[in-house]
């Protein structure tokens, strides 16, 4: 199964956006707390960053001022457009807030395609050799096939357990991603303590049961 429906950001201001606004706002507020303000670390290939938004991303959105002065409101719009709506994580928010939070938080740090793949890999690993549902293509795009597979897992395992299983597997893959980065380039070791402390285990999957 493949996700043939394009994720083009068409849901940014309509449809699901009205449903997920409160949940998205809460997640963005948590991101601001984790990311902090302006930094320009010499080991960070992203360069100057403010509120977790890199200079390249800010310029792509039309901001031409100094990065140290990037308004929080602009950063909030970028978070929603690029890291929630565009990759289809708004649809995950409608289904499971903890899983969506894991995807959004990871996507801000690693790029949205990475947690999309981790979500798909987790689903494929939980289908008991396709006895419960068919494998989906791991293409880094959250579309109908991925969401249908998650719904099938919920039917088999129950909503709470499906949420916890997928969320924990995504978190584990995120940790492996950081280890891979640091082993491939020692510059990334500068960020490992912060990544592991702030980004691994930071989503409470006990909320799956609430």
UniProtKB/TrEMBL annotation:
Per its UniProt entry, which superkingdom is the organism in? Answer: Bacteria
Matching SUPFAM superfamilies, A to Z? Answer: Lysozyme-like
Q: Which InterPro entries match?
A: Lysozyme-like_dom_sf, Peptidoglycan-bd_3, TtsA-like_GH18_dom
Which segments constitute the Peptidoglycan binding domain? 115-198
Q: Residue ranges of the TtsA-like Glycoside hydrolase family domain?
A: 30-111
Q: Know the name of this protein?
A: Uncharacterized protein
Give the organism, scientific name: Stakelama tenebrarum
């Amino acid at each position: 199964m493949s996700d043939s429906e394009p994720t083009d950001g068409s849901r940014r201001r309509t449809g699901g956006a009205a449903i997920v606004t409160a949940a998205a706002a809460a997640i963005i507020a948590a991101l601001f707390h984790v990311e902090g303000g302006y930094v320009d670390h010499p080991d960070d290939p992203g360069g100057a960053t403010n509120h977790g938004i890199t200079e390249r991303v800010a310029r792509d959105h039309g901001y031409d001022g100094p990065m140290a002065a990037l308004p929080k409101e602009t950063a909030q719009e970028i978070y929603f457009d690029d890291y929630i709506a565009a990759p289809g994580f708004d649809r995950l928010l409608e289904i499971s807030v903890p899983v969506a939070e894991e995807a959004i938080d990871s996507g801000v740090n690693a790029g949205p395609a990475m947690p999309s793949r981790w979500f798909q890999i987790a689903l494929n690993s939980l289908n008991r050799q396709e006895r419960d549902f068919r494998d989906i293509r791991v293409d880094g795009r959250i579309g109908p096939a991925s969401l249908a597979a998650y719904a099938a897992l919920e039917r088999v395992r129950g909503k709470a357990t499906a949420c916890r299983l997928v969320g924990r597997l995504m978190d584990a893959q995120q940790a492996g991603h950081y280890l891979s980065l640091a082993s491939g380039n020692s510059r990334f070791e500068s960020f490992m303590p912060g990544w592991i402390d702030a980004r691994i285990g930071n989503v409470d999957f006990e909320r799956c049961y609430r």
